[in-house]
Amino acid sequence: MRKTVSFSRHTTNVFFHILTRCNLSCRHCYINPAQHGEQTLSPDIIARWLEVFTASGGKPNLILLGGEPTLHPHLDQVVHAARSLGYGSITIDTNGYLFHGILDKTSPEEVDYFSFSLDGATKDTNDAIRGNGCYEACTAGIREAVHRGYAASLIYTVSRDNIHELTQMPPLLEKLGVNRFFIQVIGLRGQSAGMNSASLQVERGTWKTLIPDVARQVADLGIAATYPKVFLEPDEQFECAGLVADNYFIFPNGRVYRCPLCEDYPIHSLFMDHDKLSPTGKINETDLFSLQIPEGCVMNKLLQPGNLLYKDDGSPEYRIACCMLKEEIS
Ligand code: SF4
Ligand code: SF4
After folding, report:
1. % pLDDT > 90, the chain
2. What are phi and psi of 59, to 5 degrees?
3. Whose CA is nearest to atom 3 of ligand 1?
4. Which residue of 11, 116, 192, 241 shows the fewest CB atoms closer than 10 Å?
């Protein structure tokens, strides 16, 4: 069944970058230490910040991110703390190196998903993007996690450098025992913003045909497949998640954003002030969310105007959806 996953208005999602350090330097990395800080947060601070989102009794979803979060020597303590606080689900995003024996220190009952990043179906393509040795490390990490009973997701960031191998992914996912497959679109953030990643973006026709086809093939294998909507159909409503959803993107320097496309700029709407979530002054990202433009997402128009095409009368040929709007085939 194919459905558009609209923003959950009643669930809080906490995307927590507990450090920005990483053992890799992927071509399209979106981490930007100048904006996000270079510190590794202590388990105590992380627990206090996590508590902010459960204080009202909700059960938020937690996604632990880096850099590479398994480089944090106390990631297991962070997972235990989040469980005690009542987080509804815990996902750890990893490049697959699984440092500090994290699989030994947590359990499948505590961690809902380990989410691995692989950007090619072959070693050559993946390692050209993510670095030598990455393919072996990541696929070995997936096998080990699955062997120990953990559920595994796989994230594939599609670009012109690896789209030719997307069709090889369904059998690989099945072989590895992956439970969920996320196709991502390359964005203009972090390091990728400085390397002309607009030229790496997949063109609209391909996005609208190949991506859903591959997702369907993956779903036919019993693996849930999700990909960003990106282009809205004329009859589809545009909504900005910054206005209607409850997402928080937290960085080690205390910045908290509601929109991931804003993360490269000091326009965060919230920050951690003595372990409390406090609003920032104007102008910030929320001033952009309510701007109504015919092209759809305001941040896309500011950051990626090359994604847009216009008719002779000056009106846009299509609208760009919020980057958080997904299609899911299960
Ligand atoms: S994309 Fe992820 S794994 Fe790659 S360098 Fe950036 S933080 Fe590390
Ligand atoms: S990506 Fe665009 S539509 Fe989505 S939250 Fe950000 S500004 Fe709003």
Report:
1. 82
2. -125, 75
3. 95
4. 11
